[in-house]
Design goal:
With 320 residues, this protein is of the alpha/beta class. Helix content is 30%, strand content 13%. It has an eight-stranded parallel β-sheet, sandwiched between helices. Strand 7, helix 8 and strand 8 form a beta-alpha-beta unit. Helix 3 packs across helix 4 and helix 8 runs parallel beside helix 9. The two termini are 14 Å apart.
């Protein structure tokens, strides 16, 4: 279907609140990651008011478990599958009604549901803004770990590598996104000697790591990205944002904070650049953890940055 998905321009935004922590590991015995609280915390900090959605969809929080599920090595695997089917349904419905879905999680595993829902309307490209490549898959699993976390696998799953539980979706061809139409921006650990995902270099994924991003600046990073996207100008793209792409000095309230990273201004500029394109048909935001932000300081900063970055969605209706 190509860019005909939103051929008449968008009629507004749909805010989809997806309160999942299923793809994350517990940090200590008895711990449950707090990312499921992110949609509510960001709403309290003003995100819904700033976005002004035409539709708001609240998905029910799934139950987190530390037990090994049968038939899969994915922590909470069957529950992730069920939750992502709900995410996919909400995204598909939004696009059908010419609304731009903004899916607020939650952990990174919700990307797969977003792509599955969007893929029912069109072939896709993917821009993956993340401080980590999230390229864990059976070819590079650590052999001594019995359970693996889907939040570290979303890019691999998107291009068709991983547990079959997360690869096959009704009405959707496999893979969700061909590797040559995926762009990963922001990996900060790939120059470490013990980095475990170096086999991503054997794929057709376009990569701009954090060091190169900071050296290039957002304008050059956008040019490089659109040079890839423009190879298939008829195909729209989905935008994934894991906020750990921000430097930990700016945003420590995430599961795996780190440096170097972007500041708020740099990330907002990247978002504006991608969202200004009428070929961008959806966005998901993940990994903010309100448990690490008890007074809401970082939530307010994040909402301010998102409001600036999402300005193209709140301006006049876009048309291709």
């Amino acid at each position: 279907m190509g860019t005909t998905v939103l051929a008449g321009g968008i009629a507004g935004t749909a805010l989809i609140r997806a309160p999942s922590n299923l793809g994350l590991r517990p940090l200590r015995p008895g711990h449950e990651p707090g990312t499921w609280r992110a949609p509510e915390a960001l709403t309290r900090a003003g995100l819904e008011a700033r976005l002004g959605p035409v539709r708001t969809v609240d998905l029910e929080r799934p139950r987190y478990s530390t037990e090994k599920p049968p038939g899969t090595v994915l922590r909470n695997g069957p529950a992730i599958r069920r939750f992502n089917e709900q995410v996919a349904g909400a995204v598909e419905a939004a696009l059908r009604d010419r609304l731009f879905p903004v899916v607020v999680g939650g952990d990174c595993s919700i990307l797969i549901g977003c792509l599955a829902g969007a893929r029912r309307h069109s072939e896709l490209s993917l821009v993956h803004l993340d401080g980590h490549s999230d390229f864990r898959h059976p070819g590079n699993y650590e052999p001594d770990i019995p359970l693996h976390s889907a939040a570290g696998m979303d890019l691999a799953l998107a291009i068709g590598l991983g547990d079959p539980l997360m690869l096959r979706w009704d009405g959707v061809p496999d893979p969700l996104v061909p590797a040559e139409r995926a762009i990963q921006i922001g990996e900060r650990e790939d120059r470490d000697p013990d980095w475990g995902w170096e086999d991503i270099n054997d794929t057709a994924i376009t990569r701009i790591d954090m060091f190169e991003l900071l050296e290039l600046g957002h304008e050059q990073a956008l040019r490089r990205s659109f040079a890839v996207l423009d190879r298939t100008p008829e195909i729209p793209f989905w935008l994934h944002l894991d906020i750990d792409i921000l430097d930990q000095a700016v945003m420590p309230a995430v599961d795996s904070p780190g440096s170097p990273g972007l500041d708020y201004g740099g990330l907002a500029a990247l978002l504006r650049g991608f969202l200004a394109s009428p070929r961008c048909i959806g966005l998901n935001v993940t990994i903010y953890d309100p448990d690490l932000d008890p007074d809401g300081t970082y939530a307010r900063g994040l909402v301010g940055m998102l409001a600036e970055g999402l300005e193209p969605l709140t301006a006049a209706r876009r048309r291709p």
